[in-house]
Amino acid sequence: MARRGKDSVLTEITNKNCPVDKKSDLRRVVYVYSDDLIAVCDQLPKVQCRARMVHSLISAYDLSRCMRCVSPRPAREDEVTLFHSSDYVDCLKRLSAIEDDEKYDEEAEEFGLSYDCPAYPGVFEHACVLAGATMTAATCLMSDLCDVAVNWCGGWHHAKRHEASGFCYFNDIVLGILKLRQKYERVLYVDLDLHHGDGVEDAFCATNKVMTVSFHKYSPGFFPGTGRLTDTGMGTGRYYSVNVPLKDGITDAQFVSVFTRVMELARVSYAPGVLVCQCGADGLTGDPMEAFNLTPSAHSQCLQYLLSWNIPLLLVGGGGYNFANTARCWTVLTSVVTGQQLRSEIPEHEAFTEYGPDFELELQAGNKINRNTNEYIEGILQQVKENLSHVSCG
Ligand SMILES: CC1(C)CN(C2CCCC2)C(=O)N1c1ccccc1/C=C/C(=O)NO
Ligand SMILES: [Zn+2]
C-alpha cells in the first residue's frame, strides 16, 4: 500500500490484474485518472472532448486493467507558486471568477491572458486540476509506486512563470519536474510536441539540474518562434538546453533516427536519474497543423528507446488537434509501457464512429514534401554533438 503521509496524493483505486502471467517483468504503471480530471480537460477551449476520447479508447482496449489507476488531487495555490509568480496566479484567479467573459481587462494583457490565450470562467480551478494531476504522477514515481506514471491530461509546455501562453495556463510539467527534483539529482525532459517546449526550457535554462531536449517544427512565423539549434541555455545551464529544429514533412524513420541519436548523446553525457516525456501529437499526419508526416509508430519507437534506459519515466500529453489520431497515439504509447499487444481493429465503444473510415489503430504515413534533407539532419547532429561534448555528468 502506498505511503499515506500528509503529502500523499494517492487515492488508490483497486484494479483487476492485468491479463499476463506473474513471471513477466512488465513495468509497474500508474495511470492518473478521475472523472473530474477528464471533465476538466474536456472543457479546455481547444481540446474539448479529447480527454474523454483518449480515456475511452484506452479503456476499450482493456489497458486500464494493466495499470494502477490513481485519482489525483488539484494542486494547491502554494504548490503552483513554487513556479508561477503570485501576481500572475492572483490575476488568473481574479479573472477566473468573472462570469461575463466579454469584459476585457487591461491587467490581463501583462499576464498573457489576452485574445489568443483568454481566461475563461473557472480557468483557475481547471489549471490547478491539470497541474495537480502531473504532480500526482511525479509523486507516484518518487514513492517507488511505479516505474512509469502517465497523465494524458498534462503536457501544457508553453506556460511561463509570469504568463499564460499557447493555451497553457499553469506549467504542469515544470511543477512535476520540481517535485521530481526533491528526489532525483538530474532530470532529463524531452518534448515530442510539434511546438517548441519553450515554457519548460525557460524554467530550467540557467541550471544544469534539468536538461531539456525539444524536437519541434522551427519555421519563420511558426509559434512560439523559439528553439533554435544555437539556443543551448545560459550560465550554469549552458549546453543543458538542447533544441532540434525541424522542417515540414519529416517522416517516421527520419524522426526516430534523429531522436535516438540525439537522446543517446544526452544519456551518455548527462546520465539522468529520471525522464519526463511530453508526447504532444500535433506532429501526426492528419493533424490540422499539417506539418509533419508522423504516425504513432514514430512516437512508439521513441518511447521504446527511452524505456530501454530502465529509469523512472513520467509521460504527459500535450498538443494534438485531430482527436481520434491523438487518442490512437496515446493508446499505442499506453500499450507500449504496459507491454500489451493491441489488435488493429478499433474496438466497439462510445466513440467508435470517430475512427472511420478505416476504424483501424494504425495510421498511413502522410506524403507532404519532406524539407528535411539528410545534410540538414547531419548538420543538426554535428552541432548537438559539439554542444553536448561540454556536458559530462556520467
Ligand atoms: C489554438 C491552438 C491551441 C489550436 N491550434 C490549431 C490546431 C487546430 C486549429 C488551430 C493552434 O495553432 N493553437 C495555438 C494557437 C496559438 C498559440 C499556440 C497554439 C498551439 C500550441 C500547441 O499546440 N503547443 O503544443
Ligand atoms: Zn503543439
Automatic annotation (TrEMBL):
InterPro entries referenced in this protein's UniProt entry, alphabetically: HDAC_I/II, HDACs, His_deacetylse_dom, His_deacetylse_dom_sf, Ureohydrolase_dom_sf
One Gene Ontology term from the biological process aspect of the record: heterochromatin formation
Cellular component terms per the entry's GO annotation: chromosome; cytoplasm; nucleus
Single GO MF descriptor: metal ion binding
Pfam families: Hist_deacetyl
SUPFAM superfamilies, per the entry: Arginase/deacetylase
This protein's UniProt keywords: Chromatin regulator, Chromosome, Cytoplasm, Hydrolase, Metal-binding, Nucleus, Repressor, Transcription, Transcription regulation
Catalytic activity: N(6)-acetyl-L-lysyl-[protein] + H2O = L-lysyl-[protein] + acetate; N(6)-(2E)-butenoyl-L-lysyl-[protein] + H2O = (2E)-2-butenoate + L-lysyl-[protein]; N(6)-acetyl-L-lysyl-[histone] + H2O = L-lysyl-[histone] + acetate
Binding positions for a divalent metal cation per the UniProt entry: D193, H195, D282
Cofactor(s) the protein needs: a divalent metal cation
EC number: 3.5.1.98
Keyword Nucleus found: yes
Domain (Histone deacetylase): residue spans on this chain: 48-336
Subcellular location: Chromosome; Cytoplasm; Nucleus
Statement: the UniProt record of this protein carries the keyword Hydrolase: yes
Binding site for substrate: D116, G166, Y321
Family: Belongs to the histone deacetylase family. HD Type 1 subfamily.
Protein name: Histone deacetylase
Organism: Ridgeia piscesae
Lineage of origin: Eukaryota, Metazoa, Spiralia, Lophotrochozoa, Annelida
